[in-house]
Amino acid sequence: MNDAIVASNLRKRFISYERIGFIRRRKIVVEALRGVSFRVRWGEVYGLLGPNGAGKTTTVKILATLLIPDDGYAMIDGHDVVKEAGIVRGIIGLVLYPDKGFYSRLSGYENLVYFGRLYGLSKSVAEARARELMNLVGLENAMNRPYEEYSLGMRARLAIARALIHDPPVLFLDEPTIGLDPISAREVRELVRRLRKEGKAVLFTSHNLWEVEEVCDRVGIINNGRMIIEGSPRDIKDMLGLKYVIEVEVQLNGRVETIREETTNPADALRRVINDVEARGLRISRIRINEPSLEEAFIRVIGDENG
């Protein structure tokens, strides 16, 4: 079985110009991607992370057939994104700018029916699919409201519904929760988890690293157009040697004393601390293990890369 998404040695350059004085200008070559490679499996949410300008959106646009790479190749379910762009567009769903591309005077439901028809669905199928998706993203009570009256959170959920209108097996979600309130963002995360359970492959980008850690099975961190590190959030933390903090509260002479230890091996360290406490005849009242965050890993990777 093919991997859902394959990116191999992707390279992309852009030409821009810097003004020098009032008349002259100088050509600048921007290396947006410098050999990015990764794979996404079916039923997996893959987080693509990086600082602003790292190359995340350029990568998504290449995979979605919106840009042609200068070198390397990309495949979606075994189809080349350049040579078979038409096929690829039929099997992907894209959320690139959540609040763009809709018709403001049409209702949310009418927008979905319209896009379903563009994908070749019959009128009856498009209408049924639109109703199903409005329920799926929690907009069933706003089906007939004009899009221009939708809040930002409602527009973001409608954008995901539009990406799903033709039931694609592969989804690209580029910062789908940006600007959303906590409740709307949580609903989007729950929807992403549901899509994973259905076996869909999801490429997810976000600057909210807590959110990425919540929903993504694996992540890749890119910087300056290069893939720096890749793996599950836990694997990345272990590769970087980030330390867990173990805190064991014990009763000592009527007071609470906290024994604190930093370690890269929490299981062994906790066992050792508990054995020591029991050997001293003390009573444990509370144990807390603080795991290093993905944000710490991200800062370490980008800090080391930028020197």
TrEMBL record:
Keyword Transport in annotation: yes
GO-annotated molecular function: ATP binding; ATP hydrolysis activity
Ranges of residues in domain ABC transporter: 15-249
Keyword Mitochondrion recorded: no
Keywords for the protein's UniProt record, in alphabetical order: ATP-binding, Nucleotide-binding, Transport
Transmembrane stretches, start-end: none
Domain of life: Archaea
Descriptive protein name: ABC transporter related protein
